[in-house]
Amino acid sequence: FGFNAIFLQQHVQWKILVGLRLVWSIFLMFLAIAVLSFIPQEVDFGFTPLVRFGVILFVPTIFLQAMITTANAIFQKEARYDRATLALFAGSLVTVLVLVLYVLSPLSSMGMIGTLIIVSLGTLVTAVCAMGLVKRYVTFDIAFSFSEMVSLLAGALPLGLTLMFNLVYFRFDSLLLSLTRPTVEVGLYGFAYKFFEFVIAIPTFYMNAVYPKLLRIESRPKRS
């Protein structure tokens, strides 16, 4: 929701960012379940009972991803994206290794549900590693200051809404397809999107890396 960008601008305490992300992620988890209850349930296509159960099973990763993103705010501030990459590598490695064992085992009969559990496990490992690595720079703590959280939320609102509309713009076609086409076809369509998302992520990493430097340049006293 753009919290990291405003966190770096306003020099808010990291523990306030952690508290706000905790509250925000819990809200989004309940919102996801609430929205799911209004989406039509079909048997052969779209949000089938199996897909709906998978969504519910995967909802806790919203909280895990929130913690990963919160840790990335410190890595961004300290220009240590290698730490973020290390945490992501650890989680991805666990996901791949466990997934290989899963495919080769009798448990593979669980299908998609087993895969979601493994991906969630990998996300958990990434979150734990990120929080462990961030302790090199800050003390892990959680604070709930209503005034500071509101200030951070208000500052992030324009960027946050932009990101939300951007997400809708990129995913609305997939949502429409999920209501009219078989789940396998929607999955293949989403897989093709990943190639595009991978490419646009490269300039995003660059912008995130130079953003703190640009803020420091902007904050320097202007010469008369």
State the helical fraction: over 70%
Overall 3D shape: globular
Separation, N- and C-terminal Cα atoms: 37 Å
Query: Pairing-aware structural class of the strands and helices?
Result: mainly alpha
What is the beta-strand fraction?
A: under 5%
Write down how many β-strands occur, each being a DSSP E stretch of 2 or more residues: 0
Helical run tally: 8
Rounded mean pLDDT score: 79
Could you give the order of the helices and strands? HHHHHHHH
Largest sheet: none
Radius of gyration from CA coordinates: 20 Å
**pLDDT below 50 for ≥5 consecutive residues: which ranges?**
none
Topology:
Elements: H1 3-10, H2 14-38, H3 49-58, H4 61-77, H5 81-104, H6 112-134, H7 146-178, H8 183-219
Walk me through the structure.
It is a single chain. This protein is an all-alpha fold and 224 residues long. It contains eight helices and no strands. Helix content is 79%, strand content 0%. Helix 1 packs antiparallel against helix 7 and helix 2 runs parallel beside helix 7. The longest helix has 37 residues.
